[in-house]
Specification:
six-stranded mixed β-sheet, 179 residues, three-stranded antiparallel β-sheet, 24% helix, Rossmann fold, binds guanosine-5'-monophosphate
């Protein structure tokens, strides 16, 4: 499996440090309020698990699953809700937690859906963003790392549901997804 990745882009130590900072910032920004943290399955699960333990204000955790890439590495542009939230978010401050913003299509669509449910506010928190590939204009409120246009895996991010458990963020070798 280690042979499938070409290099470590972000180490587990760098991620851990960043997650602490992000959690502290979110706690300050939402001080005195109550937050609904919405994790986007499955890629954001590991990031969310670490992040919420660095947030010191009261919060709820809920999840949504949306279709994005299937087994390819290119966005189809079609976003479908596979699994919806359990809780109502009406009047709540919502923080969407995502693994990576690539074209931005997924989050643009999700923002609209959640705003239509009359949330008091909807903000975005992502571990990674690839600005080079953005197709739509979205405002990212909290971002961990800006990365180049490479297909990455690890720390929750997969290719064909593999590599999610790798502790850092790694570049996947092209031959793995082109062969
Ligand atoms: P977007 O709608 O912004 O194009 O795509 C967001 C989703 O695409 C992410 O949640 C993630 O599932 C997937 N994605 C985009 N870039 C990468 C990448 O470099 N590696 C992996 N594993 N998934 C990616």
């Amino acid at each position: 499996m280690q042979n499938d990745v070409s290099k470590c882009l972000i180490s587990r130590e760098q991620i851990a440090e960043k997650v602490v900072q992000m959690g502290q910032q979110i706690s300050r920004d939402y001080s005195g309020r109550e937050l609904v943290v919405v994790g986007i399955l499955k890629g954001a699960v590991i990031f969310l698990s670490d992040l919420v333990r660095e947030i010191s204000i009261p919060l709820y955790i809920d999840f949504m699953a949306v279709s994005s890439y299937g087994s390819s590495t290119e966005s189809s542009g079609v976003v479908r809700i596979l699994n919806d939230l359990d809780m109502s978010i009406e009047g709540m401050d919502v923080l969407i937690v995502e693994d990576i913003v690539d074209t931005g299509l997924t989050l643009k669509y999700l923002m609209e859906i959640l705003k239509n449910r009359k949330a008091a506010s909807v903000k975005i928190c992502t571990l990674l963003e690839k600005p080079a590939r953005r197709k739509v204009d979205i405002n990212i409120d909290y971002n961990g790392f800006v990365i180049p246009d490479e297909f990455v895996v690890g720390y929750g991010l997969d290719y064909n549901n593999r590599y999610r458990h790798l502790p850092g963020v790694y570049v996947l070798k092209k031959e793995v997804y082109t062969s």
